[in-house]
Amino acid sequence: MKLRWTAALAATAVAAAAVGCSPGGGGEEAAGEHYYVSLGDSLAVGVQPGDEGPVETSEGYTDVLYRDLYGTDSGLRHERMGCSGEDTTTFTEGGLPDCAYAEGSQLRAAEAFLADHRGEVDLVTVGIGANNFTGCAQRDDGTVDTDVDTACVEDGLRRLEEEAPRIAERLRDAAGPDVEIVGMTYYNPFLAALLVEDVNEQISGGADGPEADEPSNRDLAAYSTEVLERANGTLVDAYTAEDIEVADVAAAFDSADTAVPEDSVTGMPANVQRICDYTYMCDTALGPDIHTNEAGAREIARVFRETVDAG
User: Is there a contact between 2 and 311 (Cβ–Cβ < 8 Å)?
Assistant: First the structure.
């Protein structure tokens, strides 16, 4: 039976925050203990830019979601299995040095956990796929390189189309038909390129990529929008085919809304404003960086919570 979460009492929520629950549950096991399993990439483990590069935090959307759910269910434990840098290939096959799972990959580890805790898992969330192509426009320090390699992007999208359906199928098989699984769509951080006035970066020519005789920031924003639509469509199709619900983060970030709101004080289109509000792309001190800030993590957690409640 899928979860039905009730409204939290304020006192319970405060008590939950005071407990300081750790990833994977931690502490003494309680009677009736059951699990929320979170899977995914850097967003799932709260990566944010730091003075010396990206750092993992306890403020990812999965952490925020868990604290919210714990407020009404103190027997719930968080098995936090995500790893920064994962794409659909490494998620399935392993291979990232920083993502060392005894079973060989995050997906195999999830399958093993679900098998070992049959009947004890209430919820699984998964966010995977963005790193299939963000590496085509990201430097080693986590900042953005707007000189996009479109051949790299096309390869990443091809792998997404092949691997996302297999990931969804294997998660559903491992969890069984009664466990609620929620996947997510992604926002488009590269919309922030529309704010750049002096752009000398270009979209490099590649397989099926656009010709850019006079490349501009608008070229990057338009190209990234096309890529995002294709990627999110692939994810939605893969998830829904396996009765996996979708937290539509792209919609929550107004990704398709190019209009300037009447009450805007910045004059930015709604989609660009959301990227500035919810990520480090417009942060002059720590960005540009594609990751969510704390407000963005809370927004993604809200979308997941609403999806869980409606499931």
Answer: yes
Instruction: Name the percent of the chain in helix, strand, coil, to the closest 5.
Output: 40, 15, 45
Closest CA to 303 of 84, 131, 61, 122: 61
Q: Which two tokens stand for residue 112?
A: 């093993």
CB 64 within 8 A of CB 298: yes
293 CB neighbour count, 10 Å cutoff: 21
Local structure of residue 32 (DSSP, 8 states):
T
Judged against a pLDDT cut of 60, whether residue 9 lies above it is answered with no
Give per-residue pLDDT as tens, 198-223. Answer: 333 333 334 444 443 444 567 778 88
Model pLDDT, residue 144: 57
Question: Per-residue pLDDT tens for 268-309?
Answer: 999 999 999 999 999 988 888 899 999 999 999 999 999 999
Q: Using CA atoms, how far apart are residues 286 and 277, in angstroms rounded to an integer?
A: 14
Which among 157, 296, 267 is positioned nearest to 223, based on CA atoms? 157
- Contact in structure between 140 and 197 (CB atoms under 8 Å): no
For the chain, list the domains and their CATH numbers: 33-310 (3.40.50.1110)
Alpha-carbon separation of residue 187 from 129, 225, 229, 265, 281 (angstroms)? 12, 9, 10, 22, 12
**pLDDT tens-digit series, residues 41-70:** 999 999 999 888 889 999 999 999 999 999
Span 219-258, pLDDT tens digits:
778 888 999 999 999 999 999 999 999 999 999 999 999 9
Beta bridge partners of 144: 138
Tokens of 218: 């608008």
User: The tokens of 240 are what?
Assistant: 């829904």
